[in-house]
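4.2 Preliminary Data

To establish feasibility before requesting continued support, the project team ran the inverse folding procedure on a target of 144 residues. The structure was first converted into the token representation described in Section 3, and no sequence information of any kind was made available to the design step. The complete token record follows.
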């Protein structure tokens, strides 16, 4: 089941499952050291896919000044390469176009997943850069 909720609408169990998925993926699996939980969690809408009480796909989306963005895009290892990520990004873009059409969609993408975002209409903007020891590039959504 797909859910879109503000922070204060999340159950404590769902927030725990989301945080656990993010920490297991970004900090343990990818061995990145940074503050995983931040103030954007409080302001964002959290979009996720849940089955049998387990969060399997997740991202947070929000307005960041003059643009709409999303971050912490993550798939549970058991659903990677199943197409669930494609569904999640389509849901995010649809939500942005429906509710925030006047804002461009910009993201900071880890360089290892550029082709995934490019398949969904995102184009590289500017030069790569390093943040928290990870190579990133800014991308802008251009409807196809």
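Position-by-position output of the design step:
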């Amino acid at each position: 089941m797909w859910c879109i909720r503000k922070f204060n609408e999340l159950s404590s169990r769902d927030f725990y499952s989301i945080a656990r998925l993010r920490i297991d993926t970004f900090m343990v699996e990818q061995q990145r050291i940074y503050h995983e939980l931040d103030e954007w969690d409080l302001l964002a809408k959290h979009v996720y896919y849940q089955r049998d009480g387990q969060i399997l796909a997740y991202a947070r989306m929000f307005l960041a000044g003059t643009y709409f963005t999303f971050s912490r895009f993550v798939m549970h290892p058991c659903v990677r390469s199943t197409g669930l990520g494609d569904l999640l990004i389509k849901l995010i873009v649809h939500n942005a176009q429906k509710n925030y059409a006047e804002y461009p969609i910009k993201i900071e993408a880890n360089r290892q997943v550029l082709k995934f975002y490019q398949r969904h209409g995102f184009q590289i903007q500017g030069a790569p850069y390093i943040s928290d020891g990870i190579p990133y590039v800014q991308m802008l959504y251009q409807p196809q």
